[in-house]
């Protein structure tokens, strides 16, 4: 394919904040006396803050008021931000900065499609904001992944066609979101978990531009 734009999820693709989301949710779940494992956490990846809380509460069979939910979600976010605020340039995932440099050198547009309301803060702490021609984050979308809205909005803002754009995702919900929008998608993480992606690599350090160009070709 003619690769003209790459749209990246943030948490778990550019930076290992997926780990911090997990630790903060686990702390909250423990306070609520709900067992919450890393396997359970896969279901939360890519999902909005309130939807994530609902999944945990459902798992613990707990029903609580909207007001209490808001309070719990805010508390989780405070714990999450304690980790995030320690981040500095260099803390991005292996290969992320180098891959973005390669895209820039090849005049390929770069977009962000993150469900997180903290996405801009994370990019700024890593000093990576300037790589992105367009940022679509959790403050801008009305439909959460797996709805394709976030990536379609990204391609539109980049003025690129879906057929010429590739999405990079570490979450099952994110891969579905990209595919629902008609995008080719590179899974970043475990091939057993991300088996619906077109290709899966353990990190951006393992992705080459040439293999992206051959994504549409019959194998
Ligand atoms: C996604 C993460 O990127 O953002 C989810 O994969 C997270 O785990 C979601 O819940 C919302 O993030 P935030 O920072 O707005 O709570
Ligand atoms: Mg992610």
From TrEMBL:
CDD domains per record: HAD_BPGM
Enzyme nomenclature, EC number: 5.4.2.6
InterPro entries for this protein: B-phosphoglucomutase_hydrolase (IPR010976), Beta-PGM (IPR010972), Beta-PGM-like (IPR051600), HAD-like_sf (IPR036412), HAD-SF_hydro_IA (IPR006439), HAD_2 (IPR041492), HAD_sf (IPR023214), PGP-like_dom2 (IPR023198)
Cofactor: Mg(2+)
Keyword RNA-binding on entry: no
Keywords: Carbohydrate metabolism, Isomerase, Magnesium, Metal-binding, Phosphoprotein
Superkingdom in the source lineage: Bacteria
Pfam short name (any one): HAD_2
GO MF entries: beta-phosphoglucomutase activity
Catalysis performed (reactions): beta-D-glucose 1-phosphate = beta-D-glucose 6-phosphate
Family designation: Belongs to the HAD-like hydrolase superfamily. CbbY/CbbZ/Gph/YieH family.
Full protein name: Beta-phosphoglucomutase
Provenance organism: Mangrovivirga halotolerans
Gene giving rise to this polypeptide: pgmB
